[in-house]
Amino acid sequence: DSQGVGELADGQYLSFTLAPGRHVLSAKLRFFGLFPRAWNQLEFGAAPGETVYIATWANYKQHDDPGASVRADAGGGATGSIGVFMSRRDGVVAALELPAMRRAAGH
Fold first, then answer.
1. Cα angle, residue 10 at apex, residues 9 and 11 outer, rounded to 5°
2. pTM of the predicted model, to two decimals?
3. Residue 5 gets which letter from DSSP?
4. What is the residue-wise DSSP string for 8-35?
5. 4 φ, ψ (degrees, to nearest 5)
6. CA–CA separation, 58 and 81 (whole Å)
7. Distance separating alpha carbons of residues 100 and 30, to the nearest angstrom
């Protein structure tokens, strides 16, 4: 919703309070912590008293590239780019994932 809530490193989580209603959560990945590399956003709704869990992660996504098989045959790496992914999580799944994480500083 156009308000910064904090920064995450691998294995971290943030918690914050939102008013009920529709919201947009945006995530950006910065190259060397400075230059924008990838971004994404997720629209979601929150009911009064509801806890919403959203997972955010970065990973490589492959590109369809006719030269990829030639590079692979020559021992080269696949062509791809990094993407930021976001997904709403079920509370049961979140309860299993959170104990292995640490809380990040946020608003």
1. 110
2. 0.72
3. -
4. --TTEE------SEEEEEEEEEEETTTE
5. -70, 135
6. 10
7. 24
Query: In angstroms, rounded to a whole number, what is the distance separating the alpha carbons of residues 44 and 52?
Result: 9
Task: Measure the CA–CA gap between 29 and 58, rounded to whole angstroms.
Answer: 8
Using one digit for the tens of pLDDT, what is the confidence trace for 9-60? 888 898 888 999 999 999 988 877 677 778 899 999 999 999 999 999 888 7
C-alpha 6/C-alpha 20 separation (Å) is 20
Where is pLDDT greater, at 57 or 68?
57
Q: What single-letter amino acid sits at 10?
A: D
90 against 64, higher pLDDT: 90
The helix (H) or strand (E) run that includes residue 96 is helix 91-97
Q: How remote is the C-alpha of 63 from its chain's centroid? A: 20
Cα(107)–Cα(102) distance, rounded to whole angstroms?
Answer: 16
